[in-house]
What does this fold into?
Amino acid sequence: MPYFQTWEEFSRAAEKLYLTEPMKVRVVLKYRHCDGNLCIKVTDDAVCLQYKTDQAQDVKKMEKLHGKLMRLMVSKETHSSAMETD
It folds into this structure.
């Protein structure tokens, strides 16, 4: 399972993965204090997307993506129309 090198690529791929199969996708955030690394993994058991960082500025980006995915999960709109408005 390779890690994405850029945040933009990862966030686009994660949103696309969620929109293709919303009922199967799950998101995992993991922080390792000994390394100071924060890892986010988005998977649907067939595809696994990962991004790892040790930069504090990337935490805000992860929080924003996580919030966006959560809003999509609880919205009553169709998922395709929700992404068009963002």
Remarks:
- The chain has a mean pLDDT of 87.
- The beta strands are 26-32, 37-43, 48-53.
- The two ends are 29 Å apart (CA to CA).
